[in-house]
Amino acid sequence: MLSPVILFPAVLNGLMTGAVYALVALGLTLIYGVLHIINFAHGALLTAAMFAAFFAHKLLGLDPYVAAVLLTPLFFVLGYGLQRFVIGPAAHGEDRNILLVTLGLAVVIENALLYAFRADTRTINLPYAFNVVEIGPAFLAVPRVVAFVVVIFVALALWLILRLTDTGKAIRAVAKEKLGAELSGIDVAHIYAVTFGLGTACLAIAACLLISTYYVNPQAGNAFVLIAFTIVVLGGMGSVAGALIGGLFVGVVESLSGLWLGESLGQIGIFVMFILVLLFRPSGLFGERA
Amino acid sequence: MKGLAPILFAIVALAMVPLITSSNVVINFLVMALLIALVGQGWNLLGGYGGQYSFGHAAFFGTGAYVTAILQMRYGINAWVGFVIGIAAGALVGAVIGLLIFRAGLKGSYFALVTLAFAEVLRIVASVAPITGAGVGTLLKLDLRPEAFQFQSRALFYWIILAMVGLSLVLTRLIEGSRFGAYLVAVRENEDAASALGVDATMVKLCAMTISAAMTAAGGCFYAQYFLFLDAGIAYGPWISIEALLAPIIGGVGTVFGPLLGALVVKTLGEVTKLMTGDAPGLDLVIYGGVLILVVAFAPRGIAGLFADLRQRFGFSKIGGEGSRG
Amino acid sequence: MSRSTVTRRHFLQTSALGAAAAAGVLHAPAVLRAQGSAVKIGVLHPVSGALSYSGQQGRIGAQMAIDEINAAGGIKSLKGAKIEAVLGDAQSTPDGGNAEVEKMNAAGVAAVVGGYASAICLSASQTAARYDLPYVVDVGVVDSIVTRGLKNTFRFGPGFGIIAKTALDNLVTINEAAGKAAKTVMIVHEDSAFGSGLAKLLNAQLPERGFQVLETIPHPTPTRDFNNVVLKIKAQNPDIVIPANYYNEYVLLARTMQQQRVQPKGIYSVLGGAASSYKFVKEFPEAAQYIMDCNHWFDPKNQKALELKKKIEAKGDFYTYEVYMNYSCVLLLSDALERAASADRAKIIAALESSTFAGHVMPYGPTKFVNGQNQGAAPVNTQVLNKDIEVIFPAAFASAKAVFPMPKA
């Protein structure tokens, strides 16, 4: 069981899967780090994005990678609108209300998709989906390798946006010191919405990367939410680099504990690690904060 | 004691329902609503009064349910005894988890997420451990005798869950008026200040979590007796954690009647939307979710808070709403 | 819709919340039951939530049967009374199923069909038992559904016990025909009642049949990634892989095996979620090729079954087992109604007990219930051959010969 022939591919697989987790977590950690809210609608928004990617392929014949270019700005606008016109006004700034509003949104989105498209599982069969990259004993599906590379670039881009642009600086200011930022003339409601939009845009990219190897139905996105929360905490809430490293790390841990404990019990590895980290190092394993 | 009269009134009024209607649809509906009210009251004690928002009350619900069921099915222990042990086991799990979390000083979102993780760990363990029947689940034997805590009549089940809700209301009211309750609220409002005044914040939160867990576990025990089937997803799944926080937040956190009001409203809303939309899958839940958002938008302090606002506006009462709108 | 009267009554019942004013209305269903111009049947499925695809498919099948019965003149012994469906959504939870049965009972249904998932069937049939309400289980394969001694509960389809036994019998036969090419197996199963229960039985019986179980891998539903499972399969190199899981996971597993170029001598699923699904074969013909499955399947020599297939496909739906199982269950029930010549629940139960119904579309022969289990119910072995699904066992229904071991690509 421990032979490198199986261990090596398992670690690589973990990294590939972890990259997509990281991207989902990136959106979540941004929203958490700035708005300090736990966004229950994240999974449903991912599902919506996956449906969008699916139909872009089915109706417009767009390759998911091309669709990403289109869907990313679209979902940015959607996220911006949701925060600015729904979540923000409805929640009155109370944590518990934000919780309920995002929960309500999740219910609405998931079931609107169910109502519109029914529960059928939909998949895309791309000619290159079964092509593999051979690295030693490991066969890595091409879409997964592409996803890995894209995620690294997205994380880098996000990091640069936060560091170098004015909006990015404003986002970081609001995250650190909301009142101070407000006093220095930053439009907090706008920044909140921009952040939510960025988080949602990450989901659009994640969806386009996932759709070629995964499937979509009205529940599909939920499978990624809990794990994304774990990553957000491990990486330190609000940290872009943390989410990336955390995602890759969780992917590998999941892969290895699945190998040793079986897929069912293997899921426990992530949560135990999560609990231990919270109990002993609540600022996250990779403490840097955005 | 002051404040107990409205509880008595509410419980007596609800107790009359089976005398008025023999419809089991109504009774069954109310049983589910009361079950959520009980589970939600557990959440409210810790979340509402103590300010510790848990996402993982399934941990206690599931423990109560499984312990009751396993004791009966595997060890032949009487259902009523199993019921009590189930509640105790839930309380114990609450105490242990609480001890770990509060000693580590976790608050806010960290607290929420770590409770969620604990519930997930238990769910995964239950889905593979032989004693819970692993994936196959645990089926309780159908045995419609009062000794076995099973009743032919839905009304008896109804009165039992009502009595449990009544007890939880009284207990919450008593805690609210006690020194312990005052400490709890003080810790919620400002933990540092409370500690400075000599309140052992960790101990206070730990006690609240234990009582909270016991209440929620009682709901789990009842679920096992009422439905006679459990699997890992039912017992420890996120659904019950969400129901547990939905009811009190909609009803009004940190109020005695919040969870009961919230549970009735949420469950009624679920039924009404289902009937309005006919047989189109999903449409009812779209409206349900939408109304949920509207309720939050227009009653940010829950329904209890809305009542308080209305009363204040129309001058029926001197008592103003507590807290601010933030 | 036909349900509007029921709808309004429910609305009053639940929204009034026990208010005294509602009392008069609440007793109405008893009156309604006596009317007799239509017979109401509860059609219960999880049409929202995690199981909604299967639930919706089941509903399609049941409604198709009801429409056909009504178009053909309704229940003749009841003066051509039409069947009226009271649709229920179990929301993929046992308590959802329970609540719906309560409503159906109050609406005065004569019987209930459906449930789909084992947990829902367990809870819903038990609730129905309180009112001596006949309950016909469509799929629910856990055997405790019919071993609890509930007089009202009838399962038309096979349970685990029979499925595992048939699967093993046929596996042995196929293997012997191939000169005992296979000796080792790996089981990959989902970890809830259905997959675990099955895996337990297979684990107990495979060694007795001369197979060595190299490893049993449970996985949750949903599972996001099957690369590790496939790695393990690759490392252990079993002759046969036995998957038992739901559609999505099955497809992911099969696709990953194709990707990782893992080719055992055979993929022999038992209740494989996708292995005998037209949808899977259509969407992933290469991954599906040569996969064998022991599953619910219609009688391929039955004219009615083929007509139904055409009708369903003409509507743009897939002809899945939920469809024809539910279709058959409703026909079975209408036959019982016909013979009971009454919507009286006890009479319907008696009619189901003595049922010898052969007009369904499954390869079960005439129904015969012993303690609520249809004795003839058994799964069928299929194999994906040239982008179609062929029956390979039992011989009486077979449309092709098993191809085993799989030819190497």
Account of the protein in words:
The complex is a heterotrimer of chains A (290), B (326) and C (409). In chain A, 74% of the residues lie in helices and 3% in strands. Chain A is built from 10 helices and 2 strands, in the order ααααββαααααα. In chain A, strands 1-2 form a two-stranded antiparallel ribbon. In chain A, helix 2 packs across helix 8 (188-210) and helix 6 packs across helix 8. Chain B is an all-alpha fold and 326 residues long. Chain B has one domain (4-239). Chain B contains 15 helices and 2 strands. A two-stranded antiparallel sheet of chain B has the order 1-2. In chain B, helix 3 crosses helix 13 (258-277) and helix 4 packs across helix 10 (201-227). The two termini of chain B are 33 Å apart. Helix content of chain C is 43%, strand content 17%. Chain C has helices at 4-16, 23-26, 28-33, 52-71, 94-106, 118-130, 160-177, 193-205, 227-236, 247-259, 278-283, 285-288, 303-314, 321-340, 345-353; strands at 38-45, 82-89, 111-114, 135-137, 153-155, 184-190, 212-219, 240-244, 266-270, 292-295, 369-370, 373-374, 380-385, 388-393. In chain C, helix 4 crosses helix 14. The radius of gyration of chain C is 22 Å and the shape is elongated. The model of chain C is unreliable at 1-36 (pLDDT under 50). Chains B and C meet through helix 3, helix 6, helix 11 and helix 13 of B and helix 1, helix 4, helix 5, helix 6 and helix 8 of C.
User: In CATH's first tier, which class of the largest domain in chain C applies?
Assistant: Alpha Beta
Strand content of chain B: under 5%
Low-confidence runs of at least 5 consecutive residues of chain B: 317-326
Biggest sheet descriptor of chain C:
7 strands, mixed
Architecture (CATH level 2) name of the largest domain in chain C: 3-Layer(aba) Sandwich
Query: What is the count of helical runs of chain B?
Result: 15
Which protein chains make the most extensive interface, counting residues with beta carbons within 8 Å of the other chain's beta carbons? B-C, 47 and 52 residues
Distance between the termini of chain C: 53 Å
Count of spatially separate domains of chain B: 1
Largest sheet of chain B: 2 strands, antiparallel
The count of helical stretches of chain C stands at 15
Q: CATH superfamily membership of the largest domain in chain C, which one?
A: Response regulator
Shape of chain B: globular
Give the class of chain C from helix and strand content and strand pairing.
Answer: alpha/beta
Q: Trace the largest sheet of chain C across and list its strands.
A: 7-6-8-9-10-13-14
Query: What value does the average pLDDT of chain B take?
Result: 90
